[in-house]
Amino acid sequence: MAIDHVPQAGVNANAPQVAPLDASKLKITLSETLKAIPAPESLVFGGTMSDHMMIVTYHPETGWSDPEIKPYGPLTLDPTSSCFQYSTNLFEGMKAYVGSDGEPRLFRPNMNMARLERTRDRIALPTFDTNELIKLIKKLVVIESRWIPNVPGHSLYVRPTMIGTRPSLGVAASDHATLYVICCPTGPYFRTGARPLSLMAVGEHIRAWPGGTGGYKLAGNYAPTFLPQKLAAKAGYDQVLWLLEDRVTEAGAMNFFAVVKREDGDLDILTSPLDGTILPGVTRDSMLTLIAAHGSKNSLRNIPTSLKLYPHERTFTIGELVQWSEEGRLLEAFTVGTAVVVAGVGRIGSEGRDDIVLPKHEGSMGPIARALHEKITAIQEGREQWEDWSVPCS
């Protein structure tokens, strides 16, 4: 006998049902005055917002309000809101591109939504169907499509954000919430030109720890990284390489990869495992997939198909990086993330000295990083097809 629904213990089956998030109830109020589109070369990441935003709120008695796309503007929140007092804030980073057909498209939005669900549940915010949020994001991107720069290396950054808005100083989960999505056109994240990134290895300031929240996209994970980043900049480095008991974890707000030559001449490409201290990046997952497919269902440009690439998700230490560098086996290092896509690393140091100097390459990336960058951007922009990664918004 089929069982359609069994009330959970302690739940009143006769309690009124609150409204779910429903994209079909979307209300649209367009701006009467549109902003001027800045020149692509002038774009600074996060500096210019598009004309509109999507917003919807949750109340414990009524559920989700009708979502609205309206002109971009400030929020009005109670000073005691949980987001201010207890950092019940999460966000996602996504990008929209113009395809070869002129249509806007998103890159692997289902992965972002799966990560959003895990993060939302981790801080006990109200739930909703993320498929409905994807529909709302697609609609917003279509409305804002004139903001997508049709220039290589440029895109429309999309920031879904959810905050707890329970108006009380009580230390408890927020049963009120606001969910909103904003957009900004963006070009290259780092303005280093042909120079690769430099990283300062830091072990005294811990970005994430076992059993903590490093594997979730929480706003509270970022503020403690600002002081070490300032110290790295003062010491002449671009970003921080985060260590945990000498284990390499992440670089800045990005996932870190190392390319190590094997005894047989092939390449091991290593990144830290998802042990709870590492953010499960969408770009990270995509890179591992593309690396594993090289020579079979995929060919990376200017990388011989006879050269075997072995992706590894395993723990490795700063000491191992130094050893591989001294042996001449550390051929490349690079970072990946939604905002940066791929960035090459030129040197890694600490305590006023460079412990690792990577081989110099033409431009800012080594051949593996460059090939992966070219491949993934071709997929993101719809110039190449790969499974269902590039998703049209219309």
- How helix-rich are the residues, as a percent range? 10-25%
Q: Give the assembly state of these chains.
A: single chain
**Distance between the ends:** 41 Å
Q: From N to C, what is the helix and strand string?
A: EEEEHEEEHHEEEHEEEEHEHEEEHE
Q: How many separate domains make up the residues?
A: 2
Task: Name the CATH architecture of the largest domain.
Answer: Alpha-Beta Barrel
Structural class: alpha+beta
- By CATH, the topology of the largest domain is D-amino Acid Aminotransferase, Chain A, domain 2
Mean pLDDT: 93
CATH superfamily of the largest domain: D-amino Acid Aminotransferase, subunit A, domain 2
User: What is the beta-strand fraction?
Assistant: 25-35%
Number of helices: 7
Radius of gyration based on Cα positions: 22 Å
- Global shape: globular
**How many extended strands?**
19
Low-confidence runs = 1-12
The largest β sheet comes out as: 10 strands, mixed
CATH class bucket of the largest domain:
Alpha Beta
Keywords: Amino-acid biosynthesis, Aminotransferase, Branched-chain amino acid biosynthesis, Pyridoxal phosphate, Transferase
Protein name: Branched-chain-amino-acid aminotransferase
Catalytic activity: L-valine + 2-oxoglutarate = 3-methyl-2-oxobutanoate + L-glutamate; L-leucine + 2-oxoglutarate = 4-methyl-2-oxopentanoate + L-glutamate; L-isoleucine + 2-oxoglutarate = (S)-3-methyl-2-oxopentanoate + L-glutamate
Family: Belongs to the class-IV pyridoxal-phosphate-dependent aminotransferase family.
